[in-house]
Amino acid sequence: MIAAPHSGSGKTLLTLGLLRALRNRGMKVASAKIGPDYIDPGFHAAATGRPCVNLDLWAMGETAVRALASRQAADADVLVIEGVMGLFDGPQGAKGSTADVAAVLGLPVLLVIDAARQSGSIAAVAHGFRTLRKDVNVAGVILNRVASDRHEAMLREALDAIHMPVLGAVRQIDSLELPSRHLGLVQAQENQELEAFIESAASGVARETLLDRIFESAAPLGQADSSASVLPPLAQSIAIARDVAFSFIYEHVLDSWRKAGAELSFFSPLADEAPDASAKAVFLPGGYPELHAGQLAGNSRFLEGLRSHQGVIYGECGGYMVLGDGLIDKDGQRHAMAGLLPVTTSFARRKLHLGYRQLGSWNGPWPQKLHAHEFHYSTLEFEGDAPALFEAKDAAGNGLGVMGHKLGNAMGSYAHVISVAQ
To answer: Which one from 1, 59, 139, 317 is the annotated catalytic residue?
Structure first.
């Protein structure tokens, strides 16, 4: 488990470098990401050459997290899991932090500490994180943003005094940066320089960490019920939009649908492809349709394919926006969308909506209570008369009102569904 005291410590960059460095040694490397992030897993997949899964204790529950981790590690030499935020940060009053997942899986933690602007005080940071919880094993630290040989010597002296293993002291790769936009990093598939970036990070990690000791610090992962399902399929045949405008879909959801026997097909709205007309359901996941609104508005085969489809049509976040009457871009220009739901969404008036969601189905595609995540800046400019899809609460159980709409066979909301509530 790769964790840190706080966000911005460099754990994503170091995780990518570690994944590729181990792979470059000829190992079969698998990865996972704690929490509901749908962008970082794409970078993991680019570094390892295999899909990355999310492990979300709050949303999925212990049984599903154990099952997903077990399946992910089944044919790998090592499983590397990137944490979320700080080691002990999670949903208020509930399990879900990186530390909670480490405890459930019984895995050691490598703590990435931003060593800039500190020397002897780093021992207090490391000591506090190592001793706060007896069920969390901090096996060592990787120092990031080390300024010089003298700085490194002071840091090591302080950590030697508390017998904390130092498994790396990283300097050079800190100059590497990944471009970002309003929802986080620019997606892996959009970054033309990504392969060179990952190789540079891997070179730095191989040079400035003790890869053998990092590998040796890994613990065996216990066996789990690999048959655990997290979300029933929308139908037994599902056409799924997938390109750079529609890419926020969880690998564990696809895997769960396949294991339930669903037949999945994929199409690209940006390439003006229509969904398979024979599919019993269409799924439009989230993504960045606001960046491609003009192109989508002109893609008649895609839009007509949606309008004429006879099965269930379900959209999440970006997909929900495209099912509406119109989408207003950041410049205030309105683009006509599919017109299947009486909503107009706007990116011109940005407002952050972020957090876990508990969903009760009013007219949704699943009758069970659901756990989901909401993360977007767009707003509802207009909503007409249509039945609501969900009743929503935040992670703490506070009511948020209704969410989403359903009209005919089309339905959608801003929520990214992660799992059936356990």
So the answer is: 317
